[in-house]
User: Fold these one by one.
Assistant:
Number 1:
Amino acid sequence: MLFISPPFKNYIHLDRKTPMKESYTSNKRPRKSILFISPPFGNYIHLENTTPIRGSFTLNKRPGKWMQILKTLRYNSILGGWVNKIGLRNPGIDYAIKTYKKGEIISIAILDEKEIKPLEEKIPKDMDIELNVSCPNTDKHMINKGLKIFLNPKREWCIIKLPPVHFHDDLDRYYKEGFRQFHLSNTLPVKEGGLSGPHLKIYSKRNIKYINKYYPNCTVIAGGGIRTLKDIDDYKELGAHHFSVSSLCFNPIMFGAFYFKYKYFSK
């Protein structure tokens, strides 16, 4: 792939060669790896040497979270992971803004393109966010276009959380719009909802290699199936910069053992 670098990328667009658009976040990659605690556990677990991702939050309240958890959250022994269809039940973006603390990342889910402008106007310009464009456990399609409005120089983090499959055309558009932070990956769509856990590793590994090969100067957050430090090492060898856990937290003993080892070796 031929990349056209700044300043000429602003004027030269030949065929489908990808111009390297200047990004507000492209040069803000911290040197030290970060461990993110992804939703839903990022709403509750705030530990030293970790960064919680809270959410996902929508423009308006979507009540019924605990009932949906009871109805749909199940461990699938055949697939070897947790499946849910909670459907983005949450108290809404106003609650997220009111309770936001610097050092957190707020996950945003947009269910209608008409919600983009109101969300952009509500969210503080210096609030770090993750755009959830690929949640499979809701009956509504996630909006994944018109999102560059959320990019601004006051944000250290403006992450796109990608699906594990069928994202390549969208990724090309995100990159051209200026996004440089990508989280791999969201849950895998299955009949019962969204699947998390070790089954995602094969997808995340393949997608890390793809991004690093075709879209340079990106920050990659690798998640899916992390259970041990060996999983982190595997992702790191493929080019991931940061790491995320979520379903590991279903087992407090396993998570505790993992966390204290991670904390010790990350000193």
Number 2:
Amino acid sequence: MRGLLAFLLASLQAVQPSANATAAVASQQSGSAQATASQKLGPKEQVGQLSPGSFVKLTLHNNEKLKGTLGQVSADSFDLQVRKAGKTESRKIAYDDVKFIMPANRNATRNAFIALGVVAGVVVVILGVVLSRRG
């Protein structure tokens, strides 16, 4: 029984760093986006640094917020593939219409929830073992 409890505690400690790593990656990406914004690059230069197929978040000057996949890039605009109601539509966005653009990580939130679920599961198992030993 002690072996099982030791194994569960070791598993909990092994999962904890992966949750911290997920948070660190999200923080690092946020920091790199802030660094890009602080360098005062315009939308055209920011899009030029990204490769087609990159997932981005952007805000237009009319305060419309969009998330999508970067498509074809031209001299005065770029295409953004946006999913709406299960369908993908392509929108041509002029650089002059863009207030703010940054690369986005699709999986950061999902990964954080997975890590949280694993930790919660391990805690429930440990509590179940401890409570069953008392009764």
